[in-house]
What does this fold into?
Amino acid sequence: MGTDKAMLPIGGVSLLQLALDKARQVAPQTVIVGSRERYARYGNVIEDIIPGCGPLSGIHAALSITQAERNLILSVDMPLMSSQFLRWLLQQAATCSELAVVPLANGRMQPLCSVFRRVANHEVERGLRGGEYKVDRLFSILPTRVLAESEWRAAGFSPDIFCNINTPEEYDAIVARVEEASTASTKGPQS
It folds into this structure.
C-alpha cells in the first residue's frame, strides 16, 4: 500500500479504529499488535516478540500475553467485517474443543479473522522458530475447526465481510462502496 494501512480512513474513521470498535463489542479486552509508538493512543499495544515474520508474529505476540482461553484475531484490513459475525465466530469457538476456529471464504482460510486458544501458542512459536511463517500451515498441525462458507452463509452472513484491503485499488473500491451505502441510508426510501 505504501502507507500504514491501519491509519487509512473510511467514513472518517481509521481502519484501526473500525476494527477496535467491532472487537470491543464482542471481547472484554482488546490488544493491538504493532508499534507501541504508533498505536499506544488507541489502546493496549504489544509488539512482536519475534519480529519480521509477518502475521504469524502478531498472533504469537497476542497469544503470549493473553490470559483468555479463547482469543479473537482480527486484522485491520477487513473494514466490512461485522461485530455480529465476530460474536457468532466466538460462539462457534465456545462450542468446540479445537485449538483454532477459522472461517473458509472464497476458497481460502481466513486466519486473520479467527479464534485461537491460548495453548496453541506453543505450536505457533515452534513454527516461527523453525522458519515457518505461513499462518495456514498451522491449520494442518493444530486441531482446527473450519467453518465452511455454507455454514456461515446459513447463519445469515455475506462473503462481503471478508473483503480486505491490500492495494490502493481495493481501498478505493471499498471507500466508494461505504460512501455509496452511507448516501443511500441517509436518503431513505425513495417514492
User: Anything to note?
Assistant: The mean pLDDT is 93. DSSP finds eight helices and nine strands in the chain. Helices lie at 15-26, 36-39, 55-65, 83-94, 121-129, 135-141, 149-154, 168-187.
